[in-house]
Design goal:
Number of helices: 10
CATH class of one domain: Mainly Alpha
Distance between the termini: 70 Å
Order of helices and strands: HHHHHHHHHH
Number of strands: 0
Largest sheet: none
CATH topology of one domain: Tetracycline Repressor, domain 2
Radius of gyration: 20 Å
CATH architecture of one domain: Orthogonal Bundle
Helix content: over 70%
Strand content: under 5%
Low-confidence stretches: 1-9
Length: 199
Protein backbone atom coordinates (compact mmCIF):
# COMPACT_ATOMS: atom_id res chain seq x y z
CA UNK A 1 0.00 0.00 0.00
CA UNK A 2 1.44 3.36 -1.07
CA UNK A 3 1.72 6.49 1.01
CA UNK A 4 -1.36 8.76 1.06
CA UNK A 5 -1.19 11.48 -1.57
CA UNK A 6 -1.00 15.03 -0.22
CA UNK A 7 -2.89 17.74 -2.05
CA UNK A 8 -0.31 20.00 -3.70
CA UNK A 9 -2.88 22.32 -5.33
CA UNK A 10 -2.32 25.32 -3.06
CA UNK A 11 1.50 25.25 -3.01
CA UNK A 12 1.60 24.65 -6.76
CA UNK A 13 -0.75 27.53 -7.44
CA UNK A 14 1.31 29.78 -5.18
CA UNK A 15 4.51 28.79 -6.99
CA UNK A 16 2.86 29.51 -10.35
CA UNK A 17 1.68 32.95 -9.23
CA UNK A 18 5.11 33.88 -7.84
CA UNK A 19 6.87 32.70 -11.01
CA UNK A 20 4.32 34.47 -13.21
CA UNK A 21 4.65 37.73 -11.28
CA UNK A 22 8.43 37.68 -11.74
CA UNK A 23 8.28 36.78 -15.45
CA UNK A 24 5.43 39.12 -16.36
CA UNK A 25 7.19 41.94 -14.55
CA UNK A 26 10.42 41.18 -16.35
CA UNK A 27 9.18 40.93 -19.94
CA UNK A 28 5.49 41.93 -20.00
CA UNK A 29 2.58 39.77 -21.04
CA UNK A 30 3.28 39.85 -24.78
CA UNK A 31 6.77 38.30 -24.42
CA UNK A 32 6.04 36.06 -21.41
CA UNK A 33 5.97 32.34 -22.20
CA UNK A 34 3.94 29.84 -20.21
CA UNK A 35 6.71 27.26 -20.64
CA UNK A 36 9.16 29.59 -18.87
CA UNK A 37 6.69 30.36 -16.07
CA UNK A 38 5.98 26.65 -15.59
CA UNK A 39 9.69 25.83 -15.49
CA UNK A 40 10.31 28.58 -12.91
CA UNK A 41 7.46 27.13 -10.82
CA UNK A 42 9.02 23.65 -11.07
CA UNK A 43 6.19 22.13 -13.07
CA UNK A 44 5.29 21.33 -16.68
CA UNK A 45 3.10 23.55 -18.85
CA UNK A 46 0.07 21.15 -18.73
CA UNK A 47 0.12 21.41 -14.93
CA UNK A 48 0.16 25.21 -15.16
CA UNK A 49 -2.78 25.09 -17.58
CA UNK A 50 -4.66 22.90 -15.12
CA UNK A 51 -4.58 25.81 -12.64
CA UNK A 52 -4.85 28.68 -15.14
CA UNK A 53 -6.41 27.91 -18.51
CA UNK A 54 -4.64 30.70 -20.41
CA UNK A 55 -1.92 33.29 -20.14
CA UNK A 56 -4.56 36.03 -19.93
CA UNK A 57 -6.26 34.36 -16.95
CA UNK A 58 -2.89 33.89 -15.23
CA UNK A 59 -2.02 37.53 -15.88
CA UNK A 60 -5.36 38.63 -14.44
CA UNK A 61 -4.82 36.49 -11.33
CA UNK A 62 -1.36 37.96 -10.79
CA UNK A 63 -2.57 41.55 -11.18
CA UNK A 64 -5.47 41.04 -8.78
CA UNK A 65 -3.20 39.29 -6.29
CA UNK A 66 -0.62 42.07 -6.14
CA UNK A 67 -3.26 44.78 -5.80
CA UNK A 68 -4.95 42.81 -3.01
CA UNK A 69 -1.59 42.54 -1.24
CA UNK A 70 -1.03 46.28 -1.66
CA UNK A 71 -4.46 47.11 -0.25
CA UNK A 72 -3.82 44.79 2.69
CA UNK A 73 -0.53 46.59 3.39
CA UNK A 74 -2.28 49.97 3.26
CA UNK A 75 -5.07 48.92 5.61
CA UNK A 76 -2.55 47.59 8.14
CA UNK A 77 -0.70 50.92 8.12
CA UNK A 78 -3.72 53.17 8.60
CA UNK A 79 -5.26 50.98 11.30
CA UNK A 80 -2.14 51.29 13.45
CA UNK A 81 -2.44 53.86 16.24
CA UNK A 82 -1.01 57.34 15.91
CA UNK A 83 -1.83 60.81 14.65
CA UNK A 84 -2.82 61.35 11.02
CA UNK A 85 0.53 62.76 9.90
CA UNK A 86 2.43 59.78 11.29
CA UNK A 87 0.06 57.28 9.65
CA UNK A 88 0.21 59.27 6.39
CA UNK A 89 4.01 59.01 6.36
CA UNK A 90 3.89 55.29 7.17
CA UNK A 91 1.39 54.74 4.35
CA UNK A 92 3.59 56.50 1.78
CA UNK A 93 6.67 54.64 3.02
CA UNK A 94 4.74 51.35 2.85
CA UNK A 95 3.93 51.93 -0.81
CA UNK A 96 7.56 52.73 -1.56
CA UNK A 97 8.72 49.58 0.24
CA UNK A 98 6.06 47.48 -1.50
CA UNK A 99 7.19 48.71 -4.93
CA UNK A 100 10.84 48.06 -4.04
CA UNK A 101 10.16 44.59 -2.60
CA UNK A 102 8.01 43.59 -5.54
CA UNK A 103 9.54 45.32 -8.57
CA UNK A 104 7.59 42.98 -10.85
CA UNK A 105 4.41 44.68 -9.63
CA UNK A 106 5.73 48.09 -10.68
CA UNK A 107 6.97 46.78 -14.02
CA UNK A 108 3.66 45.04 -14.76
CA UNK A 109 1.70 48.21 -14.05
CA UNK A 110 4.04 50.32 -16.17
CA UNK A 111 3.94 47.78 -19.04
CA UNK A 112 0.15 47.88 -18.88
CA UNK A 113 -0.01 51.68 -18.82
CA UNK A 114 2.34 52.00 -21.81
CA UNK A 115 0.87 49.14 -23.86
CA UNK A 116 -2.53 48.15 -22.44
CA UNK A 117 -3.32 44.46 -22.68
CA UNK A 118 -5.96 44.02 -19.99
CA UNK A 119 -7.17 47.53 -19.10
CA UNK A 120 -10.45 46.03 -17.90
CA UNK A 121 -8.44 44.30 -15.13
CA UNK A 122 -5.77 46.86 -14.25
CA UNK A 123 -8.09 49.87 -14.47
CA UNK A 124 -10.59 48.79 -11.80
CA UNK A 125 -7.89 47.26 -9.55
CA UNK A 126 -5.76 50.41 -9.61
CA UNK A 127 -8.80 52.70 -9.35
CA UNK A 128 -10.03 50.82 -6.26
CA UNK A 129 -6.72 51.31 -4.44
CA UNK A 130 -6.48 54.96 -5.51
CA UNK A 131 -10.06 55.66 -4.43
CA UNK A 132 -9.43 53.99 -1.08
CA UNK A 133 -6.27 56.08 -0.54
CA UNK A 134 -8.00 59.30 -1.63
CA UNK A 135 -11.05 58.65 0.59
CA UNK A 136 -8.85 57.90 3.59
CA UNK A 137 -6.91 61.14 3.07
CA UNK A 138 -10.10 63.22 2.78
CA UNK A 139 -11.72 61.61 5.83
CA UNK A 140 -8.66 61.57 8.08
CA UNK A 141 -6.59 64.49 6.80
CA UNK A 142 -9.08 67.32 6.87
CA UNK A 143 -7.34 70.63 7.53
CA UNK A 144 -3.87 69.02 7.31
CA UNK A 145 -4.24 68.71 3.52
CA UNK A 146 -3.41 71.45 1.05
CA UNK A 147 -6.83 72.49 -0.29
CA UNK A 148 -5.49 73.56 -3.69
CA UNK A 149 -3.99 70.15 -4.50
CA UNK A 150 -5.83 67.62 -6.69
CA UNK A 151 -5.49 64.55 -4.47
CA UNK A 152 -5.88 61.99 -7.26
CA UNK A 153 -3.23 63.70 -9.43
CA UNK A 154 -0.82 63.96 -6.49
CA UNK A 155 -1.32 60.30 -5.54
CA UNK A 156 -0.72 59.20 -9.12
CA UNK A 157 2.44 61.32 -9.23
CA UNK A 158 3.74 59.70 -6.03
CA UNK A 159 2.80 56.18 -7.12
CA UNK A 160 4.35 56.64 -10.56
CA UNK A 161 7.56 57.97 -9.05
CA UNK A 162 7.88 54.96 -6.74
CA UNK A 163 7.07 52.46 -9.50
CA UNK A 164 9.45 53.96 -12.07
CA UNK A 165 12.22 54.01 -9.49
CA UNK A 166 11.53 50.39 -8.48
CA UNK A 167 11.62 49.32 -12.14
CA UNK A 168 14.75 51.26 -13.09
CA UNK A 169 17.22 48.51 -12.24
CA UNK A 170 20.81 49.64 -12.89
CA UNK A 171 19.62 53.17 -13.77
CA UNK A 172 18.11 53.69 -10.32
CA UNK A 173 21.12 55.23 -8.61
CA UNK A 174 22.26 57.16 -11.69
CA UNK A 175 18.86 58.87 -11.96
CA UNK A 176 17.70 59.18 -8.34
CA UNK A 177 20.96 59.03 -6.41
CA UNK A 178 21.65 56.67 -3.51
CA UNK A 179 18.50 57.71 -1.62
CA UNK A 180 15.32 59.38 -2.76
CA UNK A 181 12.68 58.77 -0.10
CA UNK A 182 9.13 59.44 -1.19
CA UNK A 183 7.85 60.67 2.18
CA UNK A 184 9.34 64.23 2.00
CA UNK A 185 7.91 64.67 -1.50
CA UNK A 186 4.51 63.39 -0.35
CA UNK A 187 4.52 65.77 2.62
CA UNK A 188 5.46 68.72 0.39
CA UNK A 189 2.77 67.85 -2.16
CA UNK A 190 -0.12 67.09 0.14
CA UNK A 191 0.32 68.45 3.67
CA UNK A 192 0.05 72.01 4.86
CA UNK A 193 2.88 73.07 7.12
CA UNK A 194 1.75 73.04 10.74
CA UNK A 195 -1.91 72.23 9.97
CA UNK A 196 -3.74 69.92 12.37
CA UNK A 197 -5.53 66.88 11.01
CA UNK A 198 -9.26 66.48 11.22
CA UNK A 199 -12.36 67.79 9.45
Amino acid sequence: MGRPRRSAALPTQERILLAAEAELGRVGIAAARLDDIAAAAGIKKPSLLYHFESKDLLYEAVLLRVFAALEERFVAEVQAPGPFEERFCRLVAAFEVFAAERPAFASMVLHEVLAPNRPEVLGPAAATVLAWWETWLREEGGAALRPEVDLRAALLMLATSAMVRASAGPLREALWGPTAPLVPLARALLLREGAAAGP
